[in-house]
């Protein structure tokens, strides 16, 4: 006589399987509406079907990986293996990009956090466990030989001076908002991730800063290429965003300025919740959030007054 899991699986077939799937689908649809309130917001059924399909693919792509990244620094002649690491994360595309991407994952978790906060906390903790002693997290997680087989060789090695937008501060902002609105702030979790976020934040301020105070510059642009009119900035996530045609150390980037404004505010809020000194984070946030500083560094009144069409 069949027993255990095998017999249970075998018994769910035909009409019983169809009925079980229909029930699960209805439960999903009810929970989806209860979570995101799209009908209540006036979206039609076709639009909601599209949203459900997109979200299903998002959560269906959350996977577990194990292996080692290939990394290099200016102090090494050849790439070396990162430590053996496990990663629980979503992926941008199960068929084409079946691996973790840092800035993508921060955006993924903005939705997942509303669906199941525990998944987001687990994913974030896995990513923060990849941080090294300097505060760097490899932006693309190509863990092991199987993952490398899907990646062009020129993109496999991760350089320890190259960043990616720190979208996990967006994730943390969402988690903090949900915790506070529900009246259940997970102090133990915040206390466990705070030191890693501190080191990560400091790494951005030390390695991605510009030559002038309150300026920031993405590293990783190719200043010697003759194949691109405007060399890409892959590290920014906005690969072909128009920037200086000749990469140089004296350029500075407004998008990274905005990311650091967000990060400073989130760090300040976390420090306050944990009764830690938040003065540095608040001072940095207020300076970066001051539109006068933003304008003085990034607004060219002479160019704009001439009527030139600037491709922002």
Helices and strands, with pairings:
Layout: H1 4-11, H2 14-36, H3 45-60, E1 63-67, E2 70-72, E3 80-81, E4 85-89, E5 100-101, H4 102-115, H5 117-128, E6 140-141, H6 145-148, E7 158-159, H7 168-182, H8 187-207, H9 254-273, H10 279-289, H11 291-298, H12 301-305
Parallel strand pairs: 2-7
Antiparallel strand pairs: 1-4, 2-3, 5-6
Helix pairs in contact: 4-5, 4-7, 7-9, 8-9, 9-10
Mind explaining what this structure looks like?
Strand 2 and strand 3 form a beta hairpin. The chain is mainly alpha-helical and 312 residues long. The protein is 50% helix and 7% strand.
Features:
single chain, 312 residues, mainly alpha, three-stranded mixed β-sheet, two-stranded antiparallel ribbon, 50% helix, globular
What amount of the residues lies in strands? Answer: 5-15%
Nearest-angstrom radius of gyration?
23 Å
Query: What is the distance, rounded to the nearest whole angstrom, between the alpha carbons of the first and last residues?
Result: 70 Å
Shape: globular
Number of separate strands:
7
Brief characterization of the structure:
This protein is mostly helical.
């Amino acid at each position: 006589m069949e027993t255990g899991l095998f017999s249970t699986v075998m018994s769910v077939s035909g009409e019983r399987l169809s009925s079980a799937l229909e029930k699960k689908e209805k439960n999903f649809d009810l929970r989806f509406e209860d979570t995101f309130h799209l009908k209540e917001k006036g979206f039609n059924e076709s639009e909601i079907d599209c949203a459900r399909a997109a979200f299903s693919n998002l959560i269906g792509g959350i996977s577990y990986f194990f292996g080692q990244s290939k990394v290099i620094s200016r102090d090494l002649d050849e790439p070396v293996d990162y430590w053996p690491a496990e990663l629980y994360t979503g992926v941008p595309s199960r068929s084409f990009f079946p691996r973790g991407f840092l800035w993508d994952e921060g955006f993924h978790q903005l939705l997942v956090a509303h669906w199941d906060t525990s998944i987001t906390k687990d994913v974030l903790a896995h990513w923060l466990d990849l941080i090294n002693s300097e505060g760097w997290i490899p932006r693309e997680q190509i863990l092991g030989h199987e993952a490398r087989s899907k990646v062009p060789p020129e993109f496999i090695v991760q350089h320890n001076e190259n960043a990616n937008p720190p979208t996990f501060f967006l994730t943390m902002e969402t988690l903090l908002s949900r915790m506070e609105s529900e009246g259940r702030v997970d102090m133990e979790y915040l206390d466990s991730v705070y030191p890693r976020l501190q080191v990560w934040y400091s790494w951005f301020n030390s390695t991605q800063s510009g030559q002038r105070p309150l300026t920031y510059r993405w590293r990783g642009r190719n200043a010697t290429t003759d194949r691109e009119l405007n060399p890409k900035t892959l590290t920014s996530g906005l690969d072909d965003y128009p920037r200086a045609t000749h990469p140089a150390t004296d350029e500075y980037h407004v998008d990274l300025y905005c990311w650091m404004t967000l990060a400073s505010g989130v760090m300040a809020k976390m420090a306050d919740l944990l009764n830690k000194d938040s003065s540095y984070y608040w001072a940095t946030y207020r300076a970066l959030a001051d539109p006068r500083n933003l304008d003085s560094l990034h607004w060219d009144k002479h160019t704009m007054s001439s009527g030139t069409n600037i491709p922002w």
